[in-house]
């Protein structure tokens, strides 16, 4: 795999980018904020979410939607969480895989799948590339990774960056999800805005990521979280809705 000479990775680990900007890099201070966010949410009786959309940004704004979704994901039974995001820079028809052994958080390091697994994925299509610089220009992963680490998630994480919102990446993305499913829980990192007048929810970025997951799971998100700030909605695909969609698909 190609090594990027400008990478700021240390010991093959991707460093935190958003600490000090979107949240504190101090684990005690950030831990206290997560304590309050998780404790303020009504705890679900069962964790049955199969996939999610979570917002990114400052912990004070995006934190409520993020913690609402994470409390409902079946993290305990997941081998890994696959994080799908779109680049916030120049677009290109590329799907980026991380060239690291792990991602650093204030609460420890979360590991990625083996290089052998990443090489197998990158062989699906020419659209897949393995690198570092795109991940070191994109801080949207940092808060959810920190929250997963705070919760003590023991599985692996696979952050993936889509270089554009074009339809040309959809088939490769579906092949990827089909290959990883059901051992991985897919989570889209994207800010969604709810119009206060019409009630319509639209994605600021990553619209095709939502379509991708809807196609993969044969169902739209079943539940939405609407925070005080309409820009930071979150959503869930529940297991029952996905199973119902699979039953209907099987009868067609």
- Calculate Rg over CA atoms: 17 Å
String of helices and strands: EHEHEEEEHEHHEHEEEHEEH
Query: How large a portion of the residues is in β-strands, by DSSP E?
Result: 15-25%
Q: Which outline best applies?
A: globular
Q: How helical, in percent, are the residues?
A: 25-40%
Key words describing this protein structure:
three-stranded mixed β-sheet, 8 helices, disordered N terminus, eight-stranded mixed β-sheet, globular, 252 residues, disordered C terminus
List the helices and strands and how they pair.
Elements: E1 13-14, H1 27-40, E2 49-54, H2 59-70, E3 80-86, E4 95-98, E5 102-105, E6 108-111, H3 115-122, E7 128-131, H4 133-136, H5 142-150, E8 156-162, H6 170-180, E9 184-189, E10 192-194, E11 201-203, H7 207-217, E12 223-225, E13 234-238, H8 239-251
Helix pairs in contact: 1-2, 2-5, 6-7
Concise overview:
This protein is of the alpha/beta class and 252 residues long.
Walkthrough of the structure:
With 252 residues, the protein is of the alpha/beta class. It has helices at residues 27-40, 59-70, 115-122, 133-136, 142-150, 170-180, 207-217, 239-251; strands spanning 13-14, 49-54, 80-86, 95-98, 102-105, 108-111, 128-131, 156-162, 184-189, 192-194, 201-203, 223-225, 234-238. An eight-stranded mixed sheet has the order 7-4-8-3-9-2-13-12, sandwiched between helices. A three-stranded mixed sheet has the order 1-5-6. The chain has a two-stranded antiparallel sheet with strand order 10-11. Strand 10 and strand 11 form a beta hairpin. The longest helix has 14 residues, at 27-40. The termini are far apart.
